[in-house]
Backbone:
């Protein structure tokens, strides 16, 4: 059983939402897995403690304040959407990163070419390749 499906099955089992056949197969799984059995027992203890807690009512203006805060987070100052403001900055950041990466790669390529040119055997090989190309062009003409 996958971890996600185990968590879903465990939740449904604890809520008594499994059908009889699914509940029986899950109980068989619990019999085969002591670790899962301990987890279910721990969750059952936790649920019993939570059920014993007294009900607490939210303050009268709780929902109103919550809705107001959520609207404020969605919209920036004066109702302007933050996503519309932040999008150009995100695009600009990506462009800056791409320019820096391209510059770095170009400098690395130049540095590698400079190292090749400093290497005498590479310079000789390059000269030889150039001569061979020139001879091949001359032979074609």
Residues:
């Amino acid at each position: 059983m996958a971890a996600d499906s185990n968590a879903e099955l465990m939740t449904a089992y604890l809520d008594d939402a499994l059908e009889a056949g699914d509940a029986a197969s899950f109980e068989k799984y619990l019999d085969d897995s002591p670790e899962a059995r301990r987890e279910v027992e721990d969750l059952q203890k936790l649920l019993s403690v939570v059920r014993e807690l007294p009900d607490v009512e939210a303050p009268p203006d709780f929902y109103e304040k919550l809705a107001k805060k959520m609207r404020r987070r969605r919209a920036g100052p004066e109702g302007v959407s933050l996503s519309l403001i932040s999008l150009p900055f995100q695009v600009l950041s990506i462009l800056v990163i791409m320019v820096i990466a391209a510059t770095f790669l170009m400098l690395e390529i130049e540095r590698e070419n400079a190292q090749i040119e400093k290497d005498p055997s590479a310079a000789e090989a390059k000269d030889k390749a150039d001569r061979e190309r020139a001879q091949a062009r001359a032979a074609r003409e």
